[in-house]
Specification:
Oligomer: single chain
Order of helices and strands: HHEEEEEEEHH
CATH architecture of the largest domain: Roll
Structural class: alpha+beta
CATH class of the largest domain: Mainly Beta
Largest sheet: 4 strands, antiparallel
Number of domains: 2
Helix content: 40-55%
Number of helices: 4
CATH topology of the largest domain: PH-domain like
Shape: elongated
Length: 180
């Protein structure tokens, strides 16, 4: 999410939290209840705003919203695409979506309110490209889901294992340096 919107949400959370004690000041019993709830809601929004956003780690994608925290492992991701979805009730957004083995995970923190319904905004296309590059980097290094197969150990019998162990133990006594 853009830093400017993060600060706007933080300001709104602080304002709502500040109104809570004012509502409870010298008020009836329900003023205390609603003032406490406003303070709690505003403080929660202000606190959650600091973690808001999408972060790419070596293990996967961490997606933090105001109401959720989701982690998707790289090995579960098959690809990325821009997807049209609804944000809140009325607003249509175009947002990057991770195509998983079982379903789709929409990264709503990277959404952009879209007026044009048929084109992908530049910023969303840039996010999708960055996510695809990160997925390719992961697949290049991951032996579980990448193109590099795991090295298979050759099976040896008891005599073969004993012979290789003796070679490794006795083979280091030649002209090699002892400082390794």
């Amino acid at each position: 999410m853009h830093t400017r919107w993060r600060w706007v949400l933080f300001g709104l959370g602080v304002a709502v939290a500040a109104i809570g004690p004012l509502a409870a000041l010298n008020g009836p019993w329900y003023g205390y209840v609603f003032g406490g709830l406003w303070f709690l809601m505003g403080g929660t929004v202000a606190w959650r705003t600091f973690k808001l956003g999408t972060r790419l780690t070596a293990q996967g994608i961490t997606s933090n919203g105001l109401d959720h925290e989701t982690f998707v492992e790289w090995c579960d991701v098959q690809g990325f695409e821009p997807k049209r979805s609804r944000n809140l009730i009325f607003f249509h957004t175009i947002t990057p979506a991770a195509q998983l083995r079982r379903g789709t995970h929409v990264l709503t923190e990277l959404s952009l309110l879209s007026v044009k319904k048929d084109s992908v905004p530049e910023r969303t296309a840039k996010h999708v490209t960055e996510l695809r590059q990160a997925l390719e980097r992961h697949r290049g290094n991951c032996p579980e889901c990448g193109a590099q197969p795991k090295a298979l150990a050759t099976r040896q019998g008891v005599v073969g294992r004993l012979r290789s162990r003796l070679r490794s133990l006795l083979g280091g006594n030649s002209d090699q340096s002892i400082a390794r």
